[in-house]
Write a structure and sequence with these properties.
about 170 residues, mainly beta, seven-stranded mixed beta barrel
Length: about 170
C-alpha cells in the first residue's frame, strides 16, 4: 500500500493596505423619508466629490480621477403609539440605525471611483457641517487592493491638512 503525503497549503499573507488621498471639490446633501411595513424611516446622505491626488502603491491611471465619498445616516420610527406624543401622527421616537459606524466598500474603476459609510447620527451631522463649510479639505481612505474594481474599505480619515506621509 502506498502512502501519499498531503502537503498543507499555506494561506497567503494578507494583502497590504492601499492608501488613497483625495481633495474635496464639492459637497451635496440629500434627505429621504418613507413609509415601510411597520413604520417610517429616513436617511440623510452627504456626497463629497473629490479628486484623487495620491495613491499608494502608485496606480497612475487613478490619479486625477474623481471619487465620490458617500456618508449616510439613517433612523427608523416604529408605528407604536407613544403616550408622550401629544400631536398626530403618534409614532415612536426615532432610533438611529446603526448605532455604530460601518464601512461599505471602495470602488475604483477606470471611469468611476467611490466609497461609502454609515455613521452614527452625531458624527454624521458634525462631519457634514465641517465638509459644507470647507473646513475639512482632505479625505484619506485605506482599503484592501480592489479585485474587479471593488475592495474592502478599512478606514476613512477627514482632515484640514494633508497627511505628513502617504
Amino acid at each position: 500500500m502506498t502512502e501519499t503525503k498531503q502537503e498543507r497549503r499555506r494561506k497567503p499573507p494578507p494583502e497590504p493596505e492601499h492608501t488613497l488621498l483625495a481633495t474635496v471639490k464639492s459637497v451635496t446633501v440629500s434627505y429621504y423619508v418613507g413609509n415601510h411595513g411597520d413604520g417610517v424611516s429616513d436617511e440623510a446622505i452627504t456626497d463629497v466629490l473629490c479628486d484623487i491626488v495620491a495613491i499608494t502603491p502608485n496606480i497612475p491611471k487613478h490619479l486625477g480621477k474623481e471619487l465620490t465619498c458617500s456618508l449616510m445616516c439613517s433612523r427608523q420610527y416604529g408605528r407604536v403609539d407613544d403616550p408622550d406624543e401629544k400631536g398626530w401622527p403618534r409614532i415612536g421616537k426615532g432610533q438611529t440605525v446603526p448605532e455604530r459606524p460601518f464601512l461599505l466598500n471602495m470602488r475604483l474603476d477606470k471611469d468611476v471611483g467611490g466609497l461609502s459609510a454609515y455613521l452614527p447620527e452625531a458624527a454624521y451631522w458634525a462631519l457634514q457641517a465641517d465638509l459644507k463649510s470647507g473646513r475639512l479639505k482632505f479625505i484619506e481612505a485605506k482599503f484592501i487592493r480592489p479585485r474587479r474594481g471593488y475592495g474592502d474599505l478599512t478606514s476613512i480619515y477627514f482632515s484640514e491638512n494633508p497627511p505628513e506621509e502617504l
